[in-house]
Amino acid sequence: MAWIKTIPFSEATGKLKTLYGRVTGPNGNVDNIMMAHSLRPHSMEGHMAIYKNVLHHSGNSIPKWFLETLGVWVSRLNDCDYCVDHHFSGLKRLLRDDARANALRSAIEERNIADAPLDAGQKLALDYARQLTRDPGGMTQGIVIELREQGYSDGEILEINQVTAYFNYANRTVLGLGCSTKGDVLGLSPNNSENPEDWGHS
Fold it and tell me: Could you tell me if residue 200 is left (phi over 0), alpha (psi between -120 and 50 degrees) or otherwise beta?
């Protein structure tokens, strides 16, 4: 499940056991990306706090399905199959339109956003995410101005930025530690967006 030692739920004690209890899905399932933190529970706590607040918080105004689309896009740019598989499952569930979800996946896999069933502003947001992922030092203010012109508020631009930055972090956590999806339940997420402290996956 990872290239380093991980502590299974059944053997967890103390703070780790408490954190596992907060991030579990059905039947006590803990995603391998979280289990990879088991030797340093404080880093799991930090990871979940960022993840929950960036992607699953009621203070966001961009639809969650599109934030998940950004995550799948960034993860594919980084060749992180783990995050693509997990978050595409979540995207598909949220979108409730299998044909559109599959068309999005096809465009993402081909790295051809022009063919994605998205509006111009959403495609520009994906361009921003690509720039920040592939060449962060080459980012200029111009694309932020373009995002504003497409109707995004500065707060929404921050949401796009933070989701992009989070997935680059998550991808590197997974790829750097060799996490696999073995034993994971795909597509679960902390869906209680009204409570930042509720990390339970469903």
Answer: beta
Query: CB under 8 Å to 160, separation ≥6 — which residues?
Result: 62, 70, 125, 128, 129, 147, 152
- The DSSP secondary structure of 62-129, one letter per residue, reads S-HHHHHHHHHHHHHHTT-HHHHHHHHHHHHHHH--HHHHHHHHHHHHTT-GGGSS--HHHHHHHHHH
Residues present in the chain in total: 202
CA 66 and chain centroid, separation: 11
What single DSSP character describes residue 38? T
Dihedral of alpha carbons 42, 194, 166, 9, sign: positive
Among 71, 88, 90, smallest CA distance to 163 is for 71
- 55 is written with which tokens? 């992607």
Q: What is the pLDDT of residues 145-185, one digit of tens each?
A: 999 999 999 999 999 999 999 999 999 999 999 999 998 88
Q: Would you call 141 exposed, middle or buried from its count of C-beta atoms within 10 A (0-12, 13-18, 19+)?
A: exposed
Rounded Cα–Cα distance for residues 10 and 124 (Å): 45
pLDDT digits (tens, 9 = 90+) for 119-147: 999 999 999 999 999 999 999 999 999 99
**Torsion over CA of 65, 172, 59 and 122, rounded to 10 degrees?**
-40
